[in-house]
Amino acid sequence: MNCDSCTAELSAYLDGELNGGLLAEVESHLAKCTACTAEFKSLAESAELVESHATALEVRPDIWHNVHAHLSQLPVPVPSEGWIQLIFGRRWLAAAAAAALVLTMGTWGYYRYQESEKALGRYMAEYVKARDQQEQVYRAREGNGGMDLSQPIPGHPEAAENPFVVVQFSSDDNPFRSEVR
Amino acid sequence: MIRWIEKAKRGDIGSYQKIYERFARKVLNFVYRMVNSVEEAEDLTQEAFVTVYQKLGSLKDDARFEPWLFRIARNLVYQRYRNRTPAGVSVDTLDEDGQPFTQLADTRKNPDEAFQATELESVVQRVIADLPEKYREVFVLSALQHMSYQEIAEAVGRSLPSVKTDIHRARLEVRKRVKEYLKV
Description:
The complex is a heterodimer. Chain A is mostly helical. Helix content of chain A is 64%, strand content 0%. Chain A has helices at 3-8, 10-14, 20-32, 34-53, 61-73, 83-88, 91-143. Chain A is elongated. Chain B is mainly alpha-helical. In chain B, α3 crosses α4 (65-80). In chain B, 39% of the residues are buried. Chains A and B meet through α2, α4 and α5 of A and α2, α3, α5, α6 and α8 of B.
């Protein structure tokens, strides 16, 4: 490093802005160059003189009072963050959102459960009613000498399509019929 | 500090007051060096803190609050003085002896020292005021507000090398003006 490049870095050196290799070069140069060292001392002294004699103003309390008066009239600032950050960036809000979600899901689940229970009850009532009707029919037919399988079963219209039910029953189909009449 | 900023963003004026208390003096003195008028500096500082509160929601990185604050204050200064001549030492800031009205209490006992110190304060005031604006703003932020070069670059919206060069030139200019008071 020569004197020109060293003096160009002296303010940054004074302000503690140098690091790494450049800092080492400047310090190395200053250690062996009396002219640059004198330059640096002169800069440092002038900086100290300015800082110690620069009159600083004190803040009057009424400045804040005026600022506060302005702020009180303003609407609450809206953060520019997204709603996800808005919710999950705050612990209490995230907990409240989770609790609300659990409550909603729980209520919805309970409602669905109740509905399915009611539907099952209705279905079972209809089933029992149909079964009782069939049972009554069977008993009545047994009282009359047996089932008449040629007639569809009341309450079960689909019985006609049942392949295990012979709808049109004829005497020829009876395997127990007497061969000699 | 970050917590105060977060709360202030949500409208907590109490937290904003803490931020104000921390930075008001620095902003006031920076603005004062730029406009050389106590009254104007106070007015602009007040305006800066109202503006900063309003724009707080747009601050992305809370850790960069300080350069952002100074940038707003600086922009307000330039907005107000856009059509005016560069600031010199205003008459209304000086008393009959040419001293600023508002100054720190002088605790020095020796009358000669006190006289010289008062003279130096006046000299320093004028030296800083006479710097070109471009040099003055970076010099004040560096030498008086002790901000890092990176923060200064963000505050004035210029590159780091440019800031570094101008601070050095400003220091050389200041030294030339106060040379007769130096011992070296």
